[in-house]
């Protein structure tokens, strides 16, 4: 989504109604601010479910992937990011690694991850879809709302009016 907002303004307006993720993510996509309802995946060094989800219609949703913080293999690269953009996803948060960093920077989607690694992940389909995940002292529940910009990530139980 393209509305202009700042997470700092949202937290000032809504305070304790919002959770703030304390994990310090790096920005990788061309879209620096994004928001939408949350879809989740928990997987470890296996990106088959990530690819499967991002190849489905995204309709402005944000996929939150709990990769257990592993930086050993990448859970997303340029081909999956392009598919996500073509399918209408607003963004992807990966508690793990990505690859193809130079290409990701040119793709119009929000992408945040811990870091990068050129190593491919497994593709067995191991993992869980649509489950509550937690990292950075924040809980990401399916269908909650996520707001992200250069300052960080906020989570709300419901969609917020943007200032």
TrEMBL record:
Q: Keywords in UniProt for this one? A: Lyase, Metal-binding
Documented EC number(s): 4.1.1.112, 4.1.3.17
Catalytic activity, as annotated:
4-hydroxy-4-methyl-2-oxoglutarate = 2 pyruvate; oxaloacetate + H(+) = pyruvate + CO2
Query: Record's family?
Result: Belongs to the class II aldolase/RraA-like family.
Q: How does it assemble?
A: Homotrimer.
Q: What does the protein in this record do?
A: Catalyzes the aldol cleavage of 4-hydroxy-4-methyl-2-oxoglutarate (HMG) into 2 molecules of pyruvate. Also contains a secondary oxaloacetate (OAA) decarboxylase activity due to the common pyruvate enolate transition state formed following C-C bond cleavage in the retro-aldol and decarboxylation reactions.
List, alphabetically, the NCBIfam families matched.
Answer: NOT-MenG (TIGR01935), PRK09372.1 (NF006875)
Q: What is the protein named?
A: 4-hydroxy-4-methyl-2-oxoglutarate aldolase
Q: Which gene encodes it?
A: rraA
């Amino acid at each position: 989504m393209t509305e202009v907002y700042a997470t700092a303004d949202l937290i000032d307006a809504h305070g304790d109604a919002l959770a703030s993720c304390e994990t310090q993510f790096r920005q990788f996509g061309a879209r620096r601010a994004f928001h939408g309802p949350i879809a989740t995946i928990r997987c470890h060094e296996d990106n088959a479910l990530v690819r499967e989800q991002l190849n489905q219609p995204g309709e402005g949703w944000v996929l939150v992937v709990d990769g257990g913080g592993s930086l050993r293999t990448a859970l997303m690269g340029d081909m999956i990011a392009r598919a996500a953009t073509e399918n209408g996803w607003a963004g992807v948060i990966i508690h793990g690694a990505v690859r193809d960093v130079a290409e990701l920077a040119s793709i119009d989607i929000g992408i945040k991850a811990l870091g990068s690694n050129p190593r491919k992940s497994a593709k067995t389909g191991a993992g869980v879809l649509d489950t509550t995940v937690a990292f950075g002292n924040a809980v990401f529940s399916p269908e909650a709302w996520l707001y992200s910009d250069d300052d960080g990530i906020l989570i709300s139980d419901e969609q917020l009016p943007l200032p």
